[in-house]
Design brief:
CATH class of the largest domain: Mainly Beta
Distance between the termini: 58 Å
Family: Belongs to the TBCC family.
Subcellular location: Cytoplasm
Helix content: 25-40%
Order of helices and strands: HHHHHEEEEEEEEEEEHEEE
Organism: Manihot esculenta
Keywords: Acetylation, Chaperone, Cytoplasm
CATH topology of the largest domain: Pectate Lyase C-like
CATH architecture of the largest domain: 3 Solenoid
Largest sheet: 12 strands, parallel
InterPro entries: C-CAP_CF_C-like, CAP/MinC_C, CARP_motif, TBCC, TBCC_N, TBCC_N_sf, Tubulin-bd_cofactor_C_dom
């Protein structure tokens, strides 16, 4: 109250009209502030409701698939005693179902809360272990016997029984919808300015030896199959999902960052939650170091004005031991690139 009295203009008792105008202005400003706060709260509520619905939809699909796979696993022991000819095919079907479930998690990982993602990946891992145990228990091993060398020579190169029963599950691949983005470029400098437009989801895919400069905010950023690239990006208002990158440098800011199948790459990050890596090796982390004209306003717009320091609090989902994961490290200060400043490069180059 004392600060308000000190900073408010004195009331002019000799001019009641002027005092009345000032009071009306204060009331009008207070009303505008209330409307602005109400609008922001409504937008936040709408965004939160949309994210909750997406997560609920995923969890419903995941739960249904999990129950189906568990039912298939329980039927395996019956087939081992009643219909051994169908057993191998049945186990192969289970393997395919687990791979499809793993794919579902990969496709939705950018929108899932960290706890739900951890729980889903753990469930997939447990289902794989159950299938491995069934294969070892139910599929009979080939008995050793002496055979004439001149017979069945071609059988040496044929598939083993266990390979038929349990095919190698495909590596989960990021499925990207038909989104705006930059694709299939090599040895180019590619730029996009989002500051004068409403940007939604954006994709960087299949780039080799390119430098990418993104100014302004996008809602979600997908990065897939990059080699020997440098990516400098303004703040992302939602999540960043990175998959299959090698020998790259990324300077990124986001609420959530998940990295799959990255090798020998450096990440300069500002991130509100802990970065997540999976199936990565030789990746290093350092603080965000990008600047351009207006980046402070973009950081505020994206809710990333405050640096939480989480860039170094990395979770490795494939390293469950108490000791430090060998798959990532903090980048030594002497090896960091230093401050990077982008000029406003205007319109897009190389969008496809």
């Amino acid at each position: 109250m004392e600060e308000e009295t000190a900073t408010s203009p004195p009331t002019d008792l000799s001019n009641p009209t002027k005092s009345s105008d000032h009071a009306l202005q204060k009331k009008h400003q207070a009303m505008l502030d209330r409307l602005s706060n109400r609008h922001q709260a409504r937008n936040k509520s709408s965004s939160s409701s949309s994210a909750t619905e997406s997560t609920a939809s995923f969890l419903s699909k995941f739960s249904d698939s999990k129950r189906l796979i568990e039912s298939q696993l329980s039927e395996s022991s019956k087939l081992a005693t009643t219909d051994t000819t169908r057993l191998k095919s049945h186990l192969a079907d289970i393997s395919s179902s687990i791979s499809a479930l793993e794919q579902l998690v990969a496709e939705n990982s950018y929108l899932l809360p960290s706890y739900e993602l951890r729980s889903s990946l753990k469930t997939v891992s447990e289902l794989k272990q159950s299938l491995d145990s069934l294969n070892a228990e139910l599929v009979p091993k080939k008995k050793f016997s002496f055979k004439n060398k001149s017979t069945n020579k071609t059988s040496v190169s044929g598939p083993k029984e266990t390979e038929i029963a349990k095919p190698e599950p495909p590596k989960p691949t990021l499925v990207i919808r038909d989104l705006p983005g930059i694709r299939n470029k090599e040895n180019e400098i590619l730029a996009k300015n989002f500051r004068d437009s409403e940007a939604g989801e954006f994709t960087l895919s299949d780039l080799d030896s390119c430098e990418v400069r993104l100014i302004g905010c996008v809602s979600v950023l997908f990065i897939n199959r990059l080699t020997n690239c440098k990516v400098y990006a303004g703040p992302v208002m939602g999540s960043i999902l990175i998959e299959e990158v090698e020998n790259c440098v990324f300077v990124l800011a986001s609420h959530q960052i998940r990295i799959h199948y990255a090798k020998g790459s450096d990440f300069y990050l500002r991130v509100r939650s802990r970065p997540i890596i999976e199936d990565c090796g030789g990746v290093r982390f350092a603080p965000y170091c990008l600047s351009y004209e207006g980046i402070e306003d973009d950081m505020i717009k994206a809710g990333l004005a405050e640096d939480t320091g989480n860039w170094s609090n990395v979770d490795d989902f494939k390293w469950l031991r108490a000791v430090q994961s060998p798959n990532w490290s903090v980048l030594a200060e002497s090896e960091r690139v230093g401050a990077i400043e982008l000029k406003d490069l205007g319109s897009m180059t190389g969008e496809g």
